[in-house]
Amino acid sequence: MAAPKHGKQWSALDRDLHRFSYLEAGTAYVSRPLVGFGIALAFIVIAGVLAGFVFGTDTSGMIIIAAAVFGAYMAINIGANDVANNMGPAVGANALTMGGAIAIAAICESAGALLAGGDVVSTISKGIIDPSGMQTTQIFIWAMMAALISSALWVNLATWVGAPVSTTHSVVGGVMGAGIAAAGFAAVNWPTMGKIAASWVISPVLGGVIAAAFLAFIKANIVYKDDKIAAARKWVPVLVAIMAAAFSSYLALKGLKRVVKIDIETSLIIGLVIGVLTYFVTRPMIHRQSEGLENRNKSLKVLFGLPLVFSAAMLSFAHGANDVANAVGPLAAIVHASQFGDIAAKVAIPSWVMIIGALGISFGLFLFGPKLIRMVGEQITKLNPMRAYCVALSAAITVIVASWLGLPVSSTHIAVGGIFGVGFYREWHTERRRRKLAATRPLPHIPLLAPEERRRRKLVRRSHFMTIVAAWVITVPAAAIMSGLIFLLLNAMVG
Known about the structure:
Elements: H1 2-55, H2 59-81, H3 84-92, H4 98-116, E1 120-122, H5 137-161, H6 167-183, H7 190-223, H8 228-254, H9 264-290, H10 297-327, H11 329-340, E2 346-348, H12 351-379, H13 385-405, H14 411-440, H15 451-456, H16 462-494
Antiparallel strand pairs: 1-2
């Protein structure tokens, strides 16, 4: 009888150990988000401590410390939200793993910010408010501080909800709201705000139309051809050359401001030269890569995988070069005003400010970015390398077209608009083919889908569409209201 009793004792011990293992697993699962928040908090604190070492802890030094803390917080939120638009399509198309996307984005975003980031930034965020309307330098500092805090809070809230928003528009709203609270409605440059409001519609629509047009071209000239491989050998080098030309022009126009000032015509010439060279280089490469591939759509995805990875990397580099400076603009303005006691229309961005921006983006992307990357790449509509390639290409071309027309656009709105454009085109094309097939080859034994069932099978998730559009529309007014209230609070506390 001893053996069974001994066995029961060990059985009870095993159950207790299993309970402990479940508890440990549950504790680890619960603590994972806390680790992310802990690392982010540590980075924010370190940014403030370093600013204190450099500028001291007198009155102006404490202001710069506070600005550095909120600047680091803003940079983390950029990484968590804005970068997802560059990497989401590549991850959704399975051209990149999540880890690979995060690594490439962190490197390219940081390189863009540090190597090609704008060395001069408008402290009034592209002429939104008139700094002469500010009564004192202190009021200007609190206005920029309020803009920084409100834009960071808004982007954080949008990330938590799962909506990709424009960090540049968040800063614009913050600056506008603080400017109104500090100097009244007359201080705002309303024509500039009108252009920005127009970009809410222009950016996604233009990005969506261009992405859908390229997808239609690929389907007509490659996917629906009898010999898909031969068609791919003919057209994929052309498409890769167009991508190289577009990104070369984009980077020359947006990413080389620190090295040399390039106008739109020169950037197009640079893009044309690089595009032609790329065609002659990639043509034999595509021919070799396509040898032995089966004549089916799955084989075509292989040929678009590598160009898609390069496009995601180039988008991240250009984003780091262009958008990071806008996001840390209020921080640079606060540092200048605190150090020199005056309000300048344009100030140089200190290197340590750009470093905070670059590192903050990397931390935010690594710790909190996967949620938005998955949403953008997988949950709006189903992407494959060809569709994701169209999205990336439309982003570069749309920025060039908008720059040529003098329209302010958002890279976030363009990329997400391109995804919607691809999805809505697929819906239209699928319905068109269904009707054409039913008209030419009626099959009475196969019942037609009911309207309710067809709506359920839509290729674009309408819930995400409505959430994102609503977030876009209210970004500027929400950030403005928050910024105005924060400015009044700051002014009351120190007044």
